[in-house]
Amino acid sequence: MRRVDERHASRFSKQLWFDEVADAFGFSRLRAEWNGLHRCSRQSPFLSWDWLYPWWRRLSPESALRVFTLRDSAGHLRGLLPLCERRLGLTGARRWGFLGDTDVGSDGLDLVCLPEERSEFAARFADLLVENVARFDVLELLDLPSDTPLIAALRARFPERRAWVEEIPRYRCPRLDLQGSWDEFLQGFGRADNLKRRRRWFERQEGFAIERAEQPAALRGALETFFDLHAQRWQADGGSQGIDRSAVRAFHRDAVALFAESGLAHVHTLRLGTRALASLYGLTWDGRFYFYQSGFDPAFSRLSAGLVLMGETVAHSFQRGLVAYEFLRGEERYKFDWANAETRTVGLSIVPKRLAGVTQRALQMAIARLKGSARSMLGDERWQSLQRWRRLGVRRLRTFQGRWRGD
Predict the structure, then answer these.
(1) Residue 120: what pLDDT?
(2) HSE toward the beta carbon, residue 166, CA cutoff 13 A
(3) CA distances (Å), 126 to each of 6, 108, 122, 153, 157, in order?
(4) Assigned CATH topology for domain 179-322
């Protein structure tokens, strides 16, 4: 597919044209220019080729690529919309959604372009999706920034007579804006006394160390330690919902290796002697530290090793002159203990009023009603207990399947 968009000519004195990348070879060749554009976009690290290519390869290889690019007449990449197509369950409906929108917590998915071109390019990509409406039954864009112009552009082009359009709240994403110094921050931090006391205790112990892995060789071992501690931390709750099987771990190994080439991946480990007690995995991007996940040894939970380690990474972020520490999605209390701001993500669902879309929408609404009724009948406590048992069962099944396949 190639279409010239002459509406840009007056502004840029060059024509811009759309193309579609739909094969693995074309996707793999995009890395350098995709990442070059992304570095200038000031957008989420989860829009990087280094994140989305491993996701597709490891977690959704059956998905058909629908990566739309916008180039100028010189062939330079100016914008892209990284989508893929999956078939949905019983109905077989064709769902278009973002690459990276399942399994790995990719906050801030969006079109990729320079900040000053975002509104105009949102309109252009929205027009492109209207032109391709016959190719999908559901357009589901999850975890968009709440302020992206893509939402308004799509709403304007899919009126009620043509499609059901629904904007769905997704996640609160706490953030600590790094103003002043670490010492100044501690003066207003409600858990400062506990943090200092726990830190002093560790410093008196023989063999205490906090290691920071950033080079590829060191990261490989540190990431395996992180996987182990993360699994231990969630074992009593039926297993992790985020890193729950071998394919997800393989994705993270690939993504961390790619980010490590630019020194952007970090795994911090707190140890007493040879024993790792806590681990924290994150990324640095555009002057921000993104706390992705952590883990700790439950046998030592009373020592608050996780608190001490997070304090170390926040202090290090102040020292490096970063502008923010991003806690990403989730309303866990400890995140808001640290945070002084937040962003929000939303989902946008567009279902054209055709038979396949109507059928899929009716099925989704029926499932949602059943879940709501079950939760009301059981109550929150029993519902959460049921979810833990469900996660444990899924985890055991996936472990069995992995062993059967020889993973």
Answers:
(1) 96
(2) 11
(3) 16, 18, 6, 6, 7
(4) Aminopeptidase (3.40.630)
